[in-house]
Amino acid sequence: MLNMEVFECINTRRSIRKYLDIPVEWDKVGTILEAGRLAPNSGNIQDYNFIVVQDEDHRKTIAEASLRQHWMSKAPVYIVVCADLKKSERFYGIRGERLYSVQNCAAAIENMLLTANSLDLGACWVGAFDENVISRVLNIPDYVRPQAIITIGYSDEKPKAPQRFPLTTVTFLEKYGNRIKDMPSVMHDYSLIMERNFKKGKAIFENTGKKTGSLLTA
Fold this sequence. Notes:
This protein is of the alpha+beta class.
């Protein structure tokens, strides 16, 4: 059964790039980190690490190294998500190093973004940065690769929902390219089906009323 609170959190999440000058409570940061820790990962190897960055100078340096996205430095907290490539490779070889490590970190990142939103915090997933600079500033070893930076703080903006492709565009049935014409029926969205049938039924009654003089549709 769909948990509407979870879906609402997913639906209302936005990438926030403007932050209020308000510190983030440490217990909220801890809750966000815990959400990342509990993310699904390949064989439960948990090959991710999280570096919390609060130091202002470090945040400014990281923002400069992130293609000069200086808006980042306004966020009071960064969480740098890293992949332990040695652990990924040890368990799953080259596929673990090149693919599973990325997937595992991505799952943790999404968990943290949604949790931040549920705590009335703004967050943004930043993937454009100079890895060498980030690794030097944060003393990250060679076998660990920074995957993303999550900026966290109290939002100073309310971005509108971005346009998304409909399910009929991004979803195929059984094989690639086989589009689903009647998505509500296939996905068992009975509310949409009922609404559609109601409109059809209403139109029939209206036509019938016009022919017989019935007042049923008044």
